[in-house]
Amino acid sequence: MNAPLPKAWVMAIAPYVPGRSTTDGDAPVIKLSSNENPLGTSAQAVSAFSRHAGDLARYPDAGAIALREAIAAHHDLDPARVIYGTGSDEVLHLIAGAYAGPGDEVIQVRYGFAVYEIATRRVGATLVTAPDTDYATDVDAILACVTNRTRIVFVANPNNPTGTFARKDEIARLHAALPAHVMLVLDQAYAEYLAPEDDDGGLELARTQPNVIVTRTFSKIHGLAAERIGWGYGSEEAVSAMHRIRAPFCCTTAGQEAAVAALGAADFITQSREHNRVWRAWFATEMASLGNAGLRPVPSEANFVLVLFEGAVTAETAYKALLERGYIVRWLPGQGLANGLRMTIGTEAETRGLAEALREIVNG
Predict the structure, then answer these.
(1) Those residues with Cβ within 8 angstroms of residue 291's Cβ, 6 or more apart along the chain or in another chain
(2) Residue 161: what are its φ and ψ, rounded to 5°?
(3) Domain spans in the chain, listed from the N-terminal domain onward
(4) Which residues pair with 14 in a beta bridge?
(5) Which of 15, 38, 275, 351 is surrounded by the most beta carbons within 10 Å?
(6) pLDDT band at residue 280, thresholds of 50, 70 and 90?
(7) Burial call 48-85: b when 16+ CB within 10 Å, e when fewer
(8) If one looks up domain 18-41+267-362 in CATH, what number appears?
(9) Minimal CA–CA distance to 251: which of 213, 218, 220, 206?
(10) Which CATH code fits 43-264?
(11) Which one, of 207, 191, 203, 115, lies nearest residue 152 by Cα?
């Protein structure tokens, strides 16, 4: 008996594989695989979340009015042009759904965020991958891939999973050279970890240009990964199109209130950024000191470091050895990174312990 068949392009999607949360042994688990904030969540956000335990029977505000207004006030934006969703992942899917389909092309950077491919294939569009330059975004390579079928260019900045960063002048050059019919999507999930002077200019482009959308998340520096609150900013026309396919009631009441409070937790944000700056630099230096054993850290502006294994000890071997010691990091052979491990910057103790474990592993 014949059964309904899913679309071929859907079945061609490799499902997203999240970072592991458990090991196979009995060692205490130190999870450094999902780029979560090691300092947790601000007290303001926790308090706001807890106040809504009695609201479970009521639907959340479908328009997320308070959340949009708080985001707009924090970033000097127009609240009517803020889109929101279940994490920035949903916003990325909304962009693909609104602007691409069968016969269209979507460009990503090699070693780009895995969701770009899923969002592209989900709508039947063709994914085009631009070559990188030593794991970093190459603007000229992206532009060389543009055709009259190109509809979207996805650029994560800082990039996940490499941590590399394209400077403001490069982003401006990319946008200036793109045809007007191409939507440039700047995924800024890790933007809050940048020093203020390192802004890539994405939000300003989104304010003034109809073919730029910026996406952000509350999952990283704000420590609200469990609540899945993401947002984006673009033109009125772009946001209107995305609202047509956005899931209703996509952000919980408690999550919305916690996100509003998180924006006001300036001290926590600063503390999280500074902790990450200090221990990312320390960890990268420790990994570089193991260069004679074949380890090479990729320069990162995010809250993780991608370490390449170019010597006798492979990334797979190190990944398994770390699991035995209770450290869960991210090995990404499915994204072409079989030679690297992406490691979140944890607490001081976790980061020191991870570095020592890697030193033991590569030194035999």
Answers:
(1) none
(2) -110, 15
(3) 18-41+267-362, 43-264
(4) none
(5) 351
(6) very high
(7) bbeebeeeeeeebeeebeebbebbbeeeebebebbbbb
(8) 3.90.1150.10
(9) 218
(10) 3.40.640.10
(11) 115
Non-local CB neighbours of 6 within 8 Å, separated by 6+ positions: none
* Per-residue pLDDT at 70: 98
What mean pLDDT comes out for the span 320-332? 96
**The token pair that represents 95 in the structure block:** 């962009």
Q: Which residue is it, tokens 């807890």?
A: 50
For the whole model, what pTM was predicted? Answer: 0.94
270: number of Cβ within 10 Å:
11
DSSP one-letter string for 306-357 = EEEE-SSS-HHHHHHHHHHTTEE-EEEGGGTEEEEEEEE---HHHHHHHHHH
CB atoms near residue 261 (< 10 Å): 22
Does position 24 have pLDDT exceeding 80, yes or no? no
At residue 317, the pLDDT reads: 97
Confidence of residue 128 (pLDDT cuts 50, 70, 90): very high
**How far is residue 180's CA from residue 211's CA, in Å, rounded to a whole number?**
7
Res 18: pLDDT: 73
216 confidence band (pLDDT: 50, 70, 90): very high
State the residue for tokens 């007007």.
Answer: 180
pLDDT attached to residue 13? 78
List phi, psi (to 5°) of 209.
Answer: -115, 135
Per-residue pLDDT of 253-278, as tens digits, reads: 999 999 999 999 999 999 999 999 99
CA torsion, ordered 125, 83, 141, 151, to nearest 10 deg: 40
The number of residues making up the chain comes to 364
Picking from 217, 228, 14, 244, the residue whose alpha carbon sits closest to that of residue 122 is 14
- Tell me how far apart the alpha carbons of residues 151 and 82 are, in angstroms, rounded to a whole number: 21
- Confirm if 235 and 210 have CB atoms less than 8 A apart: yes
